[in-house]
Amino acid sequence: MPVPSIRQIRAADQPEWIRMLQRLYPDAPEADFVEETAAFLEGTPHPALAPTVVFVAERPGSSQLVGFLELSLRNYAE
After folding, report:
1. Fewest 10 Å CB contacts: which of 3, 4, 49, 65?
2. Which residues contact 39 (CB under 8 A, 6 or more apart)?
């Protein structure tokens, strides 16, 4: 079985990122994902909501994403 490649997200990945977010949070409005992902990709995310970096897993030989990781840094612990 081919192993997906891991890389940082790119602007062209936005539709796939939104697709995966919708599967993860089916009750959330798509418009929220469009706004939040666009802000992140444009470099203007909301500091309290946005991840610091996003990595994606890309299926070998395809541009289809099969997973993502959003990493956020906090100055406190829960």
Report:
1. 3
2. 45, 46, 50
